[in-house]
Amino acid sequence: MNYANPLLIQIRSLAQQLHILPPIVRIYRRLFSEAYEQKFRDLLLTNIREGDLVWDVGANVGLYTRLFADRVGGNGKVIAFEPSPRAFAQLQSSFATEPSVILQEVALSDFDGQADFFVAERGSTVADSLVFHSGNSASIRTSVKRGDSMCSLNAPAIIKIDVEGAELEVLKGMTETLRTPGLRGVFVEVHFLALAQRGMRTAPVEIQKILQHAGFDVIWTDASHIAGLRKSTLRSARPIA
Question: Between the CA of residue 109 and those of 61, 75, 98, 149, what are the distances in Å?
């Protein structure tokens, strides 16, 4: 199913306006927590090869970073981008001694410079974010880079993006990176609710078009996750042990 279909976006927008979508999402994740994101995860990991360079954009505390490091092996590299000080401290604790993991305390976006980064109060259910500010957040300054600026030496083979509603800006900042022949797959968590709260209800359509225009086949693995895969390297998802 194409979850970026304009009609489906309108339905989701109406559900958000009626304040019924967030409870539905919470119930869905509670009932199907083990299955939620599983197809996305399996497809992502299946397409990572030993020796790859993988970008983990929005690494948080490193759950995917660990899986990626195991897949690429000693000859591969994982670059974990994470601007949240708390999350980055956990990344340092987990990966500081692992040569295959490179930590970058930086946010990716569509410009190079500095920006406010909103850090939620400890224990809050609100996520840290470059673009979304709530009453439970305090702002700090953080370094911001375009993906194209970080791709000057070695282009990634796989990119995973989970940035709490800033995914469109991240993709706009890596237009040249997306065109590199060695990039086989781009995997994005699309935060519909956060995008809608920013007034960017059509962003999921734009995200899909950016990937398609860069030469990727687009697959929606569920209502919140999109995968862009080059035709020549597409691999079917299979369970990952």
Answer: 20, 28, 27, 10
pLDDT score, position 115: 87
Contact at 8 Å (CB) between 203 and 195? yes
Tokens at 151, concatenated: 């791709």
pTM value is: 0.82
* Beta-strand pair 137-146/113-120: antiparallel
Tokens of 133: 């500010």
116, β-bridge pairs: 141
Three-state secondary-structure class, residue 140: strand
At position 159, the amino acid (one-letter code) is I
Cβ-proximal residues to 140 (8 Å cutoff; 6+ apart), any chain: 85, 116, 117, 119
**Sign of the C-alpha dihedral computed for residues 92, 94, 95 and 98 taken in this order:** positive
**pLDDT tens by residue, 4-44:** 555 555 555 555 445 455 554 555 444 444 466 899 999 99
3-state helix, strand, coil in the chain (%, to 5): 35, 25, 40
